[in-house]
Amino acid sequence: MNLLKNFKDPALAQKLAAAIADVVGDWTFSIMEVCGGQTHTIYKYRLREMLPPNLRLVSGPGCPVCVTPIEYIDKAVFLGLEKGASIHTFGDLVRVPGTAMNLEQAAAEGADIQPVYSPFQAIIAAKENPDRQVVFLGIGFETTLPGIGLVIQEARKSGLKNFSVLLSAKRVPPVLDALLAGGKAGIDGFITPGHVTAIIGTKAYDNLCKRYNVPMVVGGFEPLDLLAAIHLLSLEMVTNGSGNRNAYSRVVSHEGNLKAQAVLEELFEEKDAELRGLGTIANAGYGIREAYAEFDADRTFDIVTDSREPPGCICGEILCGTQQPTDCPLFGKTCTPDSPVGACMVSNEGACNAAFLYA
Ligand code: SF4
């Protein structure tokens, strides 16, 4: 606890901010923080206000709830209401709007929606209710996927026939590749996500830095973690550098977590994926391998949806870094955390949610 308190030290933060201003001078740069957790810290601790105005911070697509397509919510609602499956999900998904309703509203209509802290709770429910289909909603980036892989392995070991995962898993490097290839938002440097990179290692960005001549620095989630990452990025940007550096070395290594990577390799295969606002990106997702097809809800259920994005929501543009939350005409009016129109207002990793709470 004390250790983390040190990473919030205001005097050290001021020193780092001054060092950043010294390095940046009159240059104008845009930096994207990829992860929604980092966005939350930037708003909460008002880091933008500590930095020179010619250094622009842009929120990126690393909020898992936000990039999950609306069709996914519609599928989960369909499974709960039409197939009578017991839906187990992390809590921040239950209020994400679907086309007709969210999961909270589906529960009011009679669906069995169970918020959980761990996917293993879904396994326990499946064991205790052998006559009921239990579906775990597996969304997220590389951080959460190893845990989902472990529960599928456990389901296989236990011989479960009534457990499956509705998967919508994303991979960060291809998403950054697509952003850079499209030249979107004119980003000069990236703060790569701490938790994801703890799994995949900084090695995952080596090629991107070289190919696009762009610097990347992995950052943590405390104010000093992020300021240190911005300082390293600034040093790279003023020299036109393309270094792939680490400002979160207490958690992240170049190689990443090899055990977690082995689980990903055994259970999942890369596939094209749709991300809200970014469209379909080659190899940006994971699917469940054929060998584990019996645990893939997309294969075991016949799912029918008719999905449409909510009118007026510019979540997609915000996730690309081309618009800010306050650019949305619905922000703070018809769209608030109590009554969200789009996914970016729901999750506490969403840019609209953070802007509403702290800006
Ligand atoms: Fe969508 Fe609401 Fe954000 Fe506007 S404020 S972009 S409606 S989530």
From TrEMBL:
Give the domain of life: Bacteria
Q: Does the keyword Transcription apply?
A: no
One of the protein's GO biological processes: protein maturation
Signal peptide bounds: none
Which Pfam families does this chain map to? HypD (PF01924)
Q: Could you tell me which InterPro entries the record lists for this protein?
A: Hyd_form_HypD (IPR002780), HypD_1 (IPR042243), HypD_2_sf (IPR042244)
* Name under which the protein is recorded: Hydrogenase expression/formation protein HypD
